Amino acid sequence: MNNDELEIIGDIHQNLGTGDNASSPRAYVSPAVIKRLPRYFRYLRELIRNGKMRISSGELSKIMNVTASQIRQDLNCFGGFGQQGYGYNVKYLYAKISEILGVNCNFRAIIVGAGNLGRALVRNPMFTKRGVSTVAMFDIDENLIGGTVAGVTVHSMDELENFCKENSIDIAVLTLPKECAQDTTEKLVRAGVCGIWNFTGKELEMNREDIKVVNVHLGDSLMTLCYELNLRREKKEDN
Asked: Residue 55: phi, psi to the nearest 5?
């Protein structure tokens, strides 16, 4: 996170109420609501940068293209955070969403695979903007081992398990060949890593509640876009 974002959260954190649902164990929240939380985070951050201090659910709905009713329902899952007749304090809401999303947890991540995608990800500021520190990369290529990418050292895969155990790694980002994904994931789990962000193209599943896997299929997003473009073309031809 940059200094402005740390200051925003730091200024408001001391005023967070201890009775809010966001600070206590939460009941089941639907995956659809969870998927929208990062959007709230992004839009609220932009509002703060633009000097917006208060916003209604109606105003926020126009910006996010989500109904005001949906916004209220989403936020009520975590305590509401609004005030009738006032709306939402933007800084406060941003701080609470950040808290819910674990932005203040200082999670530590590694990237397994120092190829093109791995190098692109380690250079991307999205990790630091969301409170995640990328502390190491791993690869089998001797030409890469010992070097650095964006200040992050590339280690040998032989060091993977010991490094994770010794450095309390929370998240592993997989950008290695898909045939290596399952075996590598098992090593990571043995080493205490609880979060797997999987870009390999192989669908990984863990039958353990304490291990969370997010499978990212870039090709699926591209094909969704192609579908929409094809549909648009067909409509034009019909007209």
From this structure: -150, 145
Q: Which CATH superfamily is domain 106-220 in?
A: NAD(P)-binding Rossmann-like Domain (3.40.50.720)
Burial 34-66 (b: 16+ CB within 10 A, else e): eebbeebbebbbebbeeeeeebebeebbeebeb
pLDDT under 50: residue ranges of the chain: 1-25
- Provide the whole-model pTM: 0.81
Q: At what angle do helices 57-64 and 31-49 cross, to 10 degrees?
A: 100
Q: Could you say which DSSP state residue 145 is in?
A: T
Tell me the chain's radius of gyration from C-alpha atoms: 21
Exposed, middle or buried, 181 (CB in 10 Å: 0-12/13-18/19+)? buried
